Amino acid sequence: MKPQILRPMTQSRSAAPSRGSRAQFERRVNQLPDETRARLAKGELQAADAAFYVVKSVAGSRSQKMLRDDDNKVVGISNLSSGKLEKGSYFLLDGITLLAGVAGEGETAHDVNYTVLPDFIRNGQFELSANNTTIIDGASLELFNTAGQDVAVGHYTLDNPKMIDEQKAIELNLEWGADAPAGTFIKAILRGSVVTKA
Prior knowledge:
The protein is mainly β. The protein is about 15% helix and about 35% strand. A hairpin with a 2-residue loop joins strand 4 (about 125-130) and strand 5 (about 135-140).
């Protein structure tokens, strides 16, 4: 049975139960502040699909902090500022997509065709933290190898999605064993459901 607080969000959808990140969000709505839940119930706020992304150059590097406190929103580079959600936003992180590509001579990150991580990066590891808590620690980047799978390229779905609070730093740090070639870029996409204005 769905929590009473969610009935206004779901009452018009009488056919099928929620799926994907929305279903995960509904299971975890009790983790939101009382005021936010009340505004969801009144229809002032809603849960919407979200995909926060950031692109970083990793040329000549063996590690990269994908989200940093000096990041700014720039179309095609990042839609997060300072590696944090905006005030009033709550985000249920359901999955992560990691992609890589190489820019040709005279090209920038905007020209790259992003695809599955190359072997030398997939042989590395990553860590993810949010809300001052480690969510994933030292996991293999091979999790993003989607060859032969019926999922989006480079996508990893969390077994236990996490609610991320407003204005709390999100960290996604990658490390691998060989210098990345010139022109190499990595794109990270955090997918899930976000609380936003209705």
